Amino acid sequence: MPLESEFFASNIVLFGALGIIIALILRLEIKRATSGFKAISPTEAVQLINREDAILLDVREDNEIAQGSIRNAVHLSLSVLKQRVEELRKHSEQPIITYCRTGNRSAEACAILLQNDFDKVMSLKGGIEGWKVANLPVTKK
C-alpha cells in the first residue's frame, strides 16, 4: 500500500490534470447532449434532404462561399443570422441543417434557431469539409 500512496503523492499534479481533463470532457458531453440539436453526418443530411425536404443553411461568411457551397443551400452568415432569422420562418416546419467550414459555427447557428422557436434543427458534422470528405457534390459560383 505505501507504494501506491507514494506514486500518487509524487504524481499529484498529473492526477490533478487528469481530473480536470475528465471534468472538461464530461462538461462538453453534457452540454452537447442537452443542447437541443443533433450533429448529423453528411449521409444522414442527404437522407433528410431527400426524404423530408430539409433546408441547408450555410452560415459561413461571404468570402468563404467562393470556395464552394452545397447546392440549393440558403446562405445567411452567422454574423447576420440573429438579425435576419425571420427570413427562415417560412421553413420552420422543415428540418434545417446548418453548416459552416468545419462545424463549429453551425452549432452556434443551431442555438440561435432554437432560441427563435425552430424545432427541427441539426448541424452538419464536419461542415462543408466533412461533406467534401464524403465525396458529395459542391458547387462553385
Give a quick summary of the entry:
This protein has helices at 2-10, 12-33, 42-52, 62-65, 78-84, 104-115, 127-133, and strands at 38-40, 55-58, 74-75, 96-99, 121-124.
Structural summary, described in words:
The chain contains seven helices and five strands, in the order H-H-E-H-E-H-E-H-E-H-E-H. It is 51% helix and 12% strand. The chain is elongated. Strand 4, helix 6 and strand 5 form a beta-alpha-beta unit. It has a five-stranded parallel sheet with strand order 1-5-4-2-3. It has 141 residues and is α/β, with parallel strands linked by helices. The protein starts with a helix and ends in an 8-residue tail after the last helix. The chain has two domains: 31 residues; 97 residues, Oxidized Rhodanese, domain 1.
- Rg measurement, Å: 20 Å
Q: How does the overall form come out from the CA principal axes?
A: elongated
Major beta-sheet overview: 5 strands, parallel
User: What percent of residues are in strands?
Assistant: 5-15%
Question: What CATH architecture label of the largest domain applies?
Answer: 3-Layer(aba) Sandwich
- The CATH topology of the largest domain is what? Oxidized Rhodanese, domain 1
Helix content: 40-55%
Query: What class, by secondary structure content?
Result: alpha/beta
How many H/I helices?
7
The domain count comes to: 2
The first-to-last residue Cα distance is 69 Å
Query: How are the strands of the largest sheet arranged?
Result: 1-5-4-2-3
Q: What's the CATH superfamily of the largest domain, by name?
A: Rhodanese-like domain
Q: Secondary-structure element order, as H and E? A: HHEHEHEHEHEH
Which CATH top level class of the largest domain fits?
Alpha Beta
Uncertain runs:
none
